[in-house]
Write a structure and sequence with these properties.
The relative contact order is 0.11. Helices cover 42% and strands 18% of the residues. By secondary structure, it is an alpha/beta fold. The protein has a seven-stranded mixed β-sheet, with helices on both faces.
């Protein structure tokens, strides 16, 4: 017997709840499968499902509920800043919190670089490209470069840039190595910042499926911040540089202190910014050139 949409969603919600998963996953999957917005899906809940769509939905819901396979990898995309980005197991799934980092890049630029329209920007560890591409689209006058050590991740990022019409320069290599001696006004990064202990405690949907290369930041989660800060003088442009880091919720004070240690007499502004949940999420800094 063919299920109607509302019956399929009711089954999915119950099955997911039984396995302690997000009960809305069935809805997300069905929207993708039927190429419908949430509004259109809910408007015709009594429509019957074709047998192949019902089979597809049950298989995907079961894979997520039992194995923890992320729904974003199943449907091949994830939303970010009002746009859909391609995602594969070669890249992290973008998080809503990272949208706040993108917003703050614009807000801090307006505050500290009010007369600089063509900001030169470097995104380190770009992954699927969401930060670099969004900055390029939101600020068309900015000159954006994106770096990642993973060729597979860069391939995904390039596809996203083409699909969304963003002008971004991509470079493959480790951290700042591919852009040494190339001057920038803004360096932004959401680097791997999970500690070894935290890796063992991650939800199975993350630990078992998202790339560890993009998650693990060394024993204490801070290795990549240290490396970036040590290399920062090689990309310093003009008189000041805006630095924007995403961090783990317990890393605000520590990352701030790393910046103070490296640039003790060159800090014009430094702040730990919280996300909408009230957790430390971004460290923003304006550094003066001074003794570089």
């Amino acid at each position: 017997m063919t299920l109607k949409r509302f019956e399929a969603l009711r089954w999915a919600s119950s099955f997911l709840k039984e396995h302690h998963r997000d009960e809305n996953i069935g809805e997300i999957l069905l929207e993708s499968r039927l190429h419908l917005s949430r509004t259109d899906l809910l408007a015709d809940l009594k429509e019957p499902l074709f047998p192949q769509d019902e089979e597809w939905l049950k298989k995907r819901v079961s894979e997520h509920a039992i194995k923890g396979i992320p729904v974003q990898y199943m449907i091949g995309q994830a939303p970010f800043y009002g746009r859909n980005f391609k995602v594969t197991p070669d890249v992290l799934i973008p998080r809503q919190e990272t949208e706040e980092l993108v917003y703050r890049c614009g807000a801090w630029t307006a505050r500290f670089f009010p007369d600089r329209k063509n900001m030169s920007v470097c995104d380190i560890g770009t992954g699927s490209g969401v930060i670099a591409i969004t900055l390029a689209l939101e600020h068309p006058d900015w000159d954006v470069t994106a770096v990642d050590i993973s060729p597979q991740a860069l391939a995904v990022a390039k596809e996203n840039a083409v699909a969304l019409g963003a002008k971004v320069r991509f470079k493959q290599g480790n951290l700042l190595d591919p852009v040494k001696n190339q001057p920038f006004d803004l360096l932004v990064s959401n680097p791997p910042y999970i500690s070894q202990q935290e890796m063992n405690e991650l939800n199975d949907t993350v630990k078992n499926y998202e790339p560890h290369l993009a998650l693990l930041g060394g024993r204490d989660g801070l290795d990549l911040y240290r490396c970036i800060l040590r290399s920062l003088p090689s990309i310093f442009k003009a008189d000041r540089l805006l630095l924007a880091f995403e961090i783990g919720a317990s890393q605000g004070k520590t990352v701030s202190n790393l910046i103070r240690k490296e640039f003790s007499d060159q800090i014009e502004a430094l702040a730990v910014e919280q996300d909408l949940a009230g957790l430390d999420r971004d460290v923003m800094a304006v550094l003066r050139r001074n003794n570089f």
